[in-house]
User: Fold this.
Amino acid sequence: MTKDKDVYILGIESSCDDTSAAVFCDDKVLSNIVATQDVHKAYGGVVPELASRAHQQHIVPVIDQALKVAKIDKKALSAIAYTRGPGLMGSLLVGSSFAKSLSLALNIPLIEVNHMQAHLLAHFINETDSKVPEFPFLGVTISGGHTQIVKVKDYFDMEVIGETLDDAIGEAFDKCGKMLQLPYPAGPEIDKLAKTGNPKAFSFAKPNVKGLDFSFSGLKTSVLYFLQKKTKENPNFIPDNIEDLCASFQYRVVDILLSKLTKAVKETGISQVAIGGGVSANTGIRNALLEKQNTSNWEVFIPKFEYCTDNAAMIGIVGYLKYKNNQFTDFATASKARYAI
Ligand code: KG4
Ligand code: ZN
Assistant:
């Protein structure tokens, strides 16, 4: 039997503050280039207008680089996949306009991708040592904008069974990090500092939320009041205790997440748990999940670091899956700032 012709997909991601392009041959990554935007650091958060301008500056060099590393001429591409949403509208428009123009110029199909589905479908990227979850599994999207537990019944059949009622988990990391005088994005900084801190040094509030939903605003307030009280007694309280503060905060976040996941596994009877989104890079969360795998019937799927935070490889794999299903997009398809999974 002869092998089907190789499919080459260019994936483009520009939903927030990372401009990324990836080239795929079937379900394998040939390149995955990410340009992050340092311009937001000075503001302590993403400034939408600056993000779209930076995407405009980065998009051509990033795509050029992705094709170069993949050693693929753009004329060899079979289709272009891009992030339709959710995300910042100005940022999404840069990627979608570029994807549409290039697909028109090359006369190849266009494929729209839901960013949150992509975070979960990143598990299907074919890597030599990768293990792949089986349907149905529990997908957990933990990022700067989302915190969801999703029943993934098939590639494009997903049901949200729990989500945050207020802040996203990444937002909790970033906002509490700001209170701890850490630079944006504070998630990775807290993770680093927590490694040498005592997670039991301070006790922060655990919210009492019904069902499988989450809340992080109470934890944020608990950290704020605690810091206000302590810095009144000692103005250097934060720098003097930064490792313990980070470790104690992270301990509570991991505790909140694991409690809800335990409940979700029990209620659904599904014990395969696959995480995705920027916060899945967190060491505390990864270690807690691996420990759970060792001590229970859970099977845990954790993406490689480069497929956790925003990247175009996850867009490319969805592009490939949709290409095989002939799920193409027309040029009139509009970007969506809000786009349900
Ligand atoms: O998925 P992502 O790159 O962008 C969104 O779609 O939001 O996630 C970004 C979020 C930020 O809140 C960042 O602080 C958080 O992921 N993050 C982390 C870590 N690395 C990134 N949070 C905790 N620990 C980390 N190691
Ligand atoms: Zn994301």
Q: What stands out?
A: The pocket of zinc ion (ligand 2) is lined by residues 115, 119, 143, 277-278, 310 (CB under 6 Å). Strands lie at 8-13, 18-25, 28-36, 79-85, 110-114, 137-142, 147-154, 157-163, 272-276, 299-301.
